[in-house]
Design a protein that fits this description.
Layout lengths: L4 E4 L2 E3 L2 E4 L3 H12 L4 E5 L13 E3 L3 H11 L3 H8 E7 L9 E6 L1 H14 L3 E5 L2 E8 L6 E8 L4 E3 L2 E4 L8 E4 L2 E3 L12 H7 L4 E8 L2 E3 L9 E3 L24 E5 L2 H9 L22 H7 L7 E6 L6 E5 L7 H8 L10 E3 L2 E8 L16 E3 L9 H19 L13 H11 L24 H12 L4 H23 L1 E2 L3 H9 L9 E2 H5 L21 H12 L1 H18 L17 H10 L4 H5 L6 H13 L3
Helix pairs in contact: 1-9, 2-9, 2-11, 3-4, 6-8, 11-12, 12-15
Amino acid sequence: MNDIKMNHSYELQTDVCVIGAGHAGCEAALACARLGLETVIFTMNVDSIAMMPCNPHIGGSSKGHLVREIDALGGEMGKNIDKTFIQSKMLNVSKGPAVHSLRTQADKAAYSREMRKVLEKQEHLTIRQAEVTDLLTEVSEETGRPVITGVRIHTGTVYHCRAAIICTGTYLNARCLVGESITETGPSGMQRSTFLSESLSGLGIPLRRFKTGTPARMDGRSLDYSKMQIQEGDKEVIPFSYSTDPKDVQIEQVPCFLTYTNEETHEIIRENIDRSPIYAGIIEGTGPRYCPSIEDKVVKFAEKTRHQVFIEPEGRDTNEVYVDGMSSSMPDDVQWKMYRTVPGLEHCVIVKNAYAIEYDCVNANLLKLTLESRDVDGLFCAGQFNGSSGYEEAAAQGLIAGINASMKLMGKEPLILHRSEAYIGVLIDDLVTKNNREPYRMMTSRAEYRLLLRQDNADLRLRKYGWQVGLISQEEYTKVCEKQRLIEEETARLKNVRIGAARENQEYLRSVGSAELSTAMTLAGLLCRPELDYEKISGLDPDRPELPREVTRQVEINIKYEGYIERQQKQVEQFEKLENKKIPPQIDYDDVGSLRLEARQKLKEFLPINIGQASRLSGVTPADIAVLLIYLEKNKI
């Protein structure tokens, strides 16, 4: 329980106020409280804590990487989904390890319930059901900028604080649309937040409108699964969290199902496209490019005769299923018609209509890499409020915002992850430096060094940072250091053990489907053969030590992809030279001769902290960077 100090009946004192208890808010609040700061997390409804208003799953392509990184840093999402998943599958296993990504179907009610338990048990943390209506500030005499001093809730009570973290998700000035029907509400019929937008505008923080959507939920008993393709989970489940015992996640899984839209579905949509709020001009906000509605798919991909539709259970104790792939804002009558054209859905019963939702969010270009506002000291922002989409992207930002708010209040250095270190680094750098005109979604293609940033080595990359900030224990950090030592020792051993072309060795290689040896070769050399793996060469390696699978898997990847890994590491070295070249905050870009006007404007607007960040700004060319480097060198900056 948070030790809130009461001054009088309407004013209270705490360290950090977290506004919103979605996936970003939960991670932010837990990080602050676990680092010893008195924290209050505000939610419109305690029953919506860590709610999944859209797809009830965690992970997926690139998103699974984010969950692993959150866990490596000391976050909660991976632990929580390990306790509440109903199906698990490793995606992209036919491809290289860089794009392997874990995806789990969640029991959405259990996920929310378990996360609420974690928050309720956390020391230094208080949950408060209330709408935050105002951010309170005072102008700093030192900087001339406003500084967060507290928040006011709808009852008039003031919570004085030293930092605030906005994690409002899709609740801010939200409205839901189903055809011509518009309801001023948050996701899943929850109460929306209506006053905070005005407070933000009053502080000079401009807002913009984004849009997202969700498909219908149906009564699973009304569907004919015999017309669909069953989608089973993996036989051996790999947990998300490094602290979860793999034995604990080998559970009975719930199947999903695959079906498809058809020309009849598409014709119904085309006939009624003028009734879609998206195409009727009713929706003001910009929607996500990589998660389009079914009407968007039909219009923009007219050549496609069908689209995938996944039927996914919402939980173990409910008949409700999620119709993944058919997000829509079509009117109610059109939804009934189009859904019932899909094989297996001919007699479907809709429990909840599909809908689009519009909401206010901020342009993340106004944030520092710490996720603190550049205009209001002590104000941090995370999640869909920053213009991103997805639970995993939100949780990652929430964790970093919580860590950096804590570091600021504790007088310590912030945690800034580079693009070369983590998908989280790519995510935040993209949000802050790129002009994202639509909800941002993480993808593996956004990471330049994805062979280094695999989901299987997140602990080796990031555990040290979690330990440094105080969210990872000494025991956990020692464990990952020992793992690294074992990997290095076994890799070196395999490179030194040579196997001759003796007859018994040749026979063994034939038995495992590999070519004979023409001359002696190291075990590492054999392991580079695509048809061989660490287990298959065991018959040639009687002296190998007993090692955990998580160690041998890293050894195998490091050896098989050694050339590619070394190449990317050299690229990272070049990248880090630019990242380490700092740009002083007091630089006068008007004094930099030969700098193009557009580049000058963008550099003034974004105030990059280093040359690497400057080089990624839209409108700043390599020639502009060369001019800037010459200026910094000439002036010994």
